[in-house]
Amino acid sequence: MKKSLLMIPCFGLLAACGGSDGGGSDETDPPYGFCSNGQSLTCTYSVSDLELTYTMYVEHDDGLYFRGDFYSQYKPPVYPYEMTVSDIDRLEILQDGVLHKRDDSASITFSNLDTSGSNYEFYWYRNNELVGYSSVDRLPEPTKNFTYEVFNNTSLVTAQWDAVPDHKYSFEMAFLNCTYPDGERNISFDASVPNYSISQPESSFTIDVETQFGEKISELMSSYQSCYIAGRIIGDSQTMIPTQHVGNIKLNFAANDSVFMNLF
């Protein structure tokens, strides 16, 4: 069952209620009590200075990659960027009304989520006050029935799959990997143009191996035992938009499938 948004007090959601009177709120602005003011701690920043981003990749076997991250434009760009979630911030997800909490305090992971749900709700509380909410009632649909064909005489590779009408696709080529005749050593080649934007409603692409990697397929066959191209197909649903949204929560959801195409 969805939690009612009618009970959200305005002082906890300044962006949704037209801003503050300039005095701030002890519930959402520093100081909060104990906080080391470390640049990687969420308690160092006010709610308005933070963005909570959830990334979800749905795969063809119904596998699911999911993680959450906090960002702030005021945090120095030190690698890795990861921020530690302070005790004053609580994150919850409801999948079809079933409550999921973070696996541990070290990361924003929810291992019990799966792709079977018909509704996903995302809650962010600060000092037990709701400051962010978003929800979706569908997920991107994974790639199905992927096939490809290799044309040795032209060094072209064509690929296609079943398109979902409201999805926009792109293909990111990772590399060309070849095995030497001894079968024990490999070599990888980077593509000259790794990203393919695919026009809607198409669900296919063609790779020119010679243009991308500088050698024809016939030349590769004379030098190596086997070669394959690795990449991933990304599908973005054009209608998967939050049914409700409050606060700085961003949902970065896509179908994301790794594909491997054997040249020989």
What does this structure look like?
- With 264 residues, this protein is mostly beta strands.
- It contains two helices and 15 strands.
Can you lay out the helices and strands and say which pair or pack?
Blueprint: E1 51-58, E2 64-71, E3 89-95, E4 98-101, E5 120-126, E6 129-136, E7 144-151, E8 156-162, E9 167-179, E10 186-189, E11 195-197, E12 204-208, H1 209-213, H2 217-223, E13 226-237, E14 244-246, E15 249-262
Parallel strand pairs: 1-15
Antiparallel strand pairs: 1-2, 3-4, 3-5, 5-6, 6-14, 7-8, 8-12, 9-10, 9-11, 9-13, 13-15
Which terms summarize this structure?
264 residues; mainly beta; seven-stranded mixed beta sheet; five-stranded antiparallel beta sheet; 2 helices; 5% helix; 42% strand; disordered N terminus
Give the averaged pLDDT, no decimals: 83
Which segments are poorly predicted (pLDDT under 50) over 5 or more consecutive residues? 1-33
How would you spell out the order of helices and strands?
EEEEEEEEEEEEHHEEE
The radius of gyration is 23 Å
Q: What fraction of the residues are assigned to beta strands by DSSP?
A: 35-45%
Distance between the termini: 53 Å
Q: Can you tell me the overall shape?
A: elongated
Q: How many strands appear in the DSSP assignment?
A: 15
Largest sheet: 7 strands, mixed
Query: Which structural category do the helix and sheet elements fall into?
Result: mainly beta
**Percent in helix:** under 10%
Count of alpha and pi helical runs: 2
